[in-house]
Automatic annotation (TrEMBL):
It is a multi-pass membrane protein. GO terms for cellular component: plasma membrane. Keywords: Cell membrane, Membrane, Transmembrane, Transmembrane helix. Residues 5-92 form the DUF3817 domain. It is found in: Cell membrane. Coiled coil: none annotated. InterPro entries: DUF3817_TM. It comes from the Bacteria. Signal peptide: none annotated. The keyword Cell membrane applies. This is DUF3817 domain-containing protein.
Amino acid sequence: MDIVRAFRVVSIAEATSFLVLLLIAMPLKYGADLPVAVQVMGPIHGILFLAYVGLAYVTGEKLGWGLKRTVLALIAAVLPVAPFFVERHWTKPAAARPEPQPAGRA
C-alpha cells in the first residue's frame, strides 16, 4: 500500500476512534458506570494516534510539506475532527490539485 494511502486510511480511523472515545466510551464510563468502554477504545485510539503521528511525518516528506504544514498536521492529531481535514485537503499530490487560474482568464 502506498504510504499516502495508508496515511489517509489511518487519518480517518484515528479521527473516528477519537470521536467514538469522546462521544460514546467516555459517557458510558461515567454515565453508565461501564469503564470497559474506555478500556477497549482507549488502546485502539492510542495505537491509531501513534500510527497517525508517524505516518504524518513520512507523508509530509513524500508530499513536500514544509515544516509549518507538518507541524499543523501533527497538532491536528489532538483535535477531534482535524485529521478529517488533513486527509481530505492535504494528501492530494500536487499534480492532482487544480491550479488557480489568473483573474480575467476563462
